[in-house]
Design goal:
With about 290 residues, this protein is an alpha+beta fold. The chain contains eleven helices and ten strands. The strands form three sheets. The chain has a five-stranded mixed beta sheet, with helices on both faces. A three-stranded antiparallel beta sheet has the order 1-3-2, sandwiched between helices.
């Protein structure tokens, strides 16, 4: 099978995110044809019956038949795709792989979380052009994906590199009070510069829960936003702090960075701005 640049984009995305839903693959494939609203719908893996008739669906089936990707059909989930060993080895033979290994199988109980993490990462990287890295890119020993054995180490779902680095946690369900205290203590101990941890929550009253705990623990590096609000605003909804009047907007940071502005945050209550690092700087996680 002769791969097109659209096909390569899907393979590279599967290497990075580990798993993609059908909608997410379509959003990447039609990056030039679709508008932002439709792409956000795709990135959050929202598909309609009509989408299954799009011509690139046939292309994905051909990639499955060729052995480059694997289709998984799970209970209560739409079809999802992962990269195969054949696909990864083909990438390596062409010098197009970015990581030493790839994620193969995925446990059914992790699919929903990983699809949502990919959704957030795709919105930030594809629409806002932010430098978003997954935990597997930052922590090589995580190997085939998933969280490490000790989440209190502060390994975030996503990491935004820049002069003002951001850790992003996609929370579909609530952890215990003790867990949050341990995780936030780990982040605080390794805090450097104007670093912040951004929570996207999906359970009822999740934002209020996170901010209440942040107030209790005096964790001023914690911000929160509802995952549904993030999706409805196309990623432009501000994250809130427990400190009144303090918010943080990734969309604001992306626009400023695109204009070539440097990092500014003279007012402690203002929204920090993200700017890209100069060439050669890694912006690596301090955790």
């Amino acid at each position: 099978m002769q791969l097109t640049e659209r096909d390569w984009k899907i393979l590279l995305a599967l290497e990075k995110w580990g798993v993609l839903g059908l909608g997410q693959a379509l959003g990447l494939a039609f990056d030039k044809e679709a508008g932002d609203e439709e792409r956000v719908r795709f990135f959050f893996n929202e598909t309609t019956r009509r989408d299954y008739g799009l011509w690139y669906c046939k292309r994905l089936r051909r990639m499955v038949q060729a052995g480059y990707i694997r289709a998984h059909f799970m209970v209560n989930e739409r079809v999802i795709y992962t990269l195969t060993e054949t696909g990864f080895e083909h990438m390596k033979s062409r010098g197009r792989n970015a990581m030493p290994g790839h994620r193969g199988e995925i446990a059914p109980n992790l699919v929903n979380h990983e699809i949502n993490v990919a959704a957030v990462g795709l919105v930030l990287s594809e629409l806002f052009s932010l430098r978003v890295r997954t935990e597997r890119e930052r922590i090589p020993w995580l190997g085939s994906g998933g969280r490490g054995p000790a989440p209190h180490r502060g390994i975030s779902d996503l990491w935004i590199s820049g002069a003002a680095p951001r850790a992003i946690e996609v929370e579909l369900s609530q952890k215990s009070r003790h867990d949050y205290q341990e995780i936030w203590n780990a982040y605080s101990l390794r805090r450097k510069g104007d670093f912040a941890v951004l929570y996207l929550t999906r359970w009822p009253h999740g934002v209020q829960t996170i901010l209440s705990l942040a107030r209790d623990f005096q964790a001023d590096l914690i911000y929160a936003c509802g995952l549904k609000d993030f999706r409805r605003s196309h990623g432009r909804r501000s994250f809130e702090s427990y400190i009144e009047g303090r918010t943080l907007s990734l969309a604001h940071g992306a626009a400023t960075a695109a204009a070539g502005a440097s990092f500014r945050n003279a007012d402690p209550g203002s929204s920090p701005v993200i700017s890209p690092l100069p060439a050669g700087e890694k912006g690596e996680c301090v955790i």
